[in-house]
């Protein structure tokens, strides 16, 4: 008796944490050239910070939708740059809440091997939360933003 079930190998993922204005940052050069060399996948990660609106669920839903749409537009723009420059097609990940916690939840399901963050990132302080960072299941690599 033979087993006809296919096992699909999920290649490791380098996750790049991005801001809308970082489409030509050193973080992409680092991550993409390593991904090509090591034959891994590239992911673009963005978090949405949602303030709580008690008794205003429809307002919160509308804000979430607008933030997600803006996040997708930002990621498509960055993905275009990565495709043209490195011939890679990145995956998109848009999550709510604290970035380190959201990445931790994603880590096993997407075979996350490394998180790459630019030091020029707007919300860098969220990624430097040492209590959360110590609990992270994957390494975080911080790349200097050379455009400043």
Textual characterization of the structure:
The chain is an alpha/beta fold. It has helices at 26-38, 57-86, 99-107, 124-127, 130-134; strands at 13-17, 41-48, 91-96, 112-118, 140-143. Helices cover 41% and strands 20% of the residues. It has a 5-stranded parallel beta sheet, sandwiched between helices. The longest helix is centred in the middle third of the chain and has 30 residues, at 57-86. The protein starts with 12 loop residues before the first strand and ends in a 5-residue tail after the last strand.
Beta-strand residue percentage: 15-25%
Strands across the major sheet, in which order?
3-2-1-4-5
User: What is the helix tally?
Assistant: 5
Helix coverage percent: 40-55%
Radius of gyration, whole Å: 17 Å
Overall geometry: globular
Q: Which secondary-structure class do the elements indicate?
A: alpha/beta
Please outline the major beta sheet. Answer: 5 strands, parallel
Termini distance?
A: 63 Å
